[in-house]
Design goal:
Bound molecules: S-adenosylmethionine
Shape: elongated
Strand order of the largest sheet: 2-3-1-4-7-6-5
Order of helices and strands: EHEEHEHEHEEHEHHEHEEHEHEE
Number of strands: 14
Helix content: 25-40%
Radius of gyration: 23 Å
Strand content: 25-35%
Length: about 375
């Protein structure tokens, strides 16, 4: 297949522009950003490279087509007209998932079954089969998404979500999704030559993602993807993408990254996760409460996701944490501080007005990402 393909990198609400930057950095063009997704053109190798490299996207889908449909007949015929045989092998297992919003075709189970029938019918003809498909081979997850009568048909290439890097063997309280942690880092202008500290490290997600970014290690290097099983994306394509990732990794880049937490158990978990990520000696871990934090250089980056104080009785404790942090950091004006919290009066407790604020979702919780830029 030499003609360009279209890929969809799905993004959590608010992270679309960051995913777009990553897609651009991978060298892809004709990038369109929409709510929750970034669509771009690539060649076949883009499936492997996007899955391996995108740090902030949720998953990578192959866009089969988009069209309007107002009846099941239209949905069937348009689906059947697509070259599914170029992607799905004769013995492929086809699983159709769906969603529909503000559309004439609102029954999702019916849409799923029509799409499945259309694909099966197309494949039976293309492979000259008189009997039913065996469906004993590689897995193909097809998504039919209908919004205001516009149908999007795509094939999931990732398998499990891209936040599953494969290193999280343990988790502390309220861990960040790895994709969000990577986004928090990319929203700063930290570069690997600078000090980075996460004083509320929990399972270590921010320091681990920072170390992967710092050494330019592809976040998907240690996991598998659905499309690796497909004949249509040959193993040589995956091998080349893995070789490229190996070549681009800069294991000699020194790093000064520390993760600390009040909880002994969290620090043990963070250490285990870093070990699993292959970053054993690269990050310093320390059990410490934030009020004991003393920056060891006059310039650096603090990135953290402290407790939000949602539970009854926690409010005073988190206010004290924010006050302590603000007090400490006021003596270090060259440090840039980035705090994500859902606590509304954060700036008041911290004692300073943020240079910039950005709304971000941590799962379903709306938060603000408070950014205090250090003096040059
Ligand atoms: C929302 S969790 C952080 C999750 C982390 N980003 C992750 O991905 O696992 C907040 C963390 O702050 C820690 N914490 C609570 N009070 C603290 C304090 N006074 N000083 C330092 N850490 C504290 C908790 O133990 C918890 O691990």
């Amino acid at each position: 297949m030499s003609q360009p393909i279209k890929l969809i990198a799905t993004a959590a609400m608010g992270l679309e522009s960051i995913v777009k930057n990553e897609v651009k950095q991978l060298g892809y063009e004709n990038i369109q950003t929409e709510n929750g997704r970034v669509i771009y053109e690539s060649d076949l190798s883009g499936i492997a490279r996007s899955n391996l490299w995108l740090r902030t996207a949720d998953r990578v889908k192959l866009l089969m087509d988009e069209f309007n449909a107002y009846s099941f007949e239209e949905l069937f015929e348009q689906t059947k007209s697509l070259p599914w045989e170029e992607w799905i092998s004769k013995d492929g297992f086809i699983h159709v998932v769906g969603k529909s919003h503000k559309s004439k075709l609102y029954s999702v189970p019916d849409c799923q079954s029509i799409v499945k029938k259309a694909i099966v019918s197309r494949l039976q003809e293309a492979y000259s089969l008189t009997s039913r498909l065996e469906e004993s081979g590689a897995r193909y997850k097809v998504e039919v998404a209908i919004l205001k009568d516009k149908v999007t048909l795509s094939l999931d290439t990732s398998g499990s979500g891209l936040h599953k890097r494969g290193y999280r063997i343990g988790q502390g309280e309220a861990p960040l999704k790895e994709t969000l942690a990577a986004a928090l880092i990319q929203l700063t202008n930290w570069s690997p030559n600078h000090t980075l500290v996460d004083p509320f490290t929990g399972s270590g997600t921010i320091p681990i993602e920072a170390a992967l970014i710092g050494q330019n290690i592809a976040p998907g290097f240690n996991r598998e993807f659905s499309a690796e099983e497909w004949d249509s994306v040959s193993s040589s394509i995956w091998d080349r993408a893995l070789e490229e990732a190996e070549d681009l990794a800069n294991y000699d880049q020194p790093l000064d990254i520390t993760g600390s937490d009040i909880s002994h158990q969290s620090i043990e978990i963070a250490e285990q996760n870093a070990l699993e990520a292959g970053l054993a000696d690269l990050i310093d871990w320390k059990q410490m409460q934030v009020s004991d934090f003393v920056p060891k250089s006059d310039k650096g980056y603090l990135i953290g996701n402290p407790p939000y104080g949602e539970r009854l009785g926690d409010k005073e404790a988190v206010e004290k944490i924010y006050q302590d942090l603000g007090h400490i950091m006021s003596s270090y004006p060259k440090w840039s501080v980035y705090i994500m919290t859902a606590y509304n009066d954060f700036e008041k407790q911290y004692g300073h007005k943020a240079t910039k604020k950005r709304k971000l979702f941590n799962g379903f919780i709306q938060t603000n990402y408070y950014q205090f830029f250090g003096k040059k």
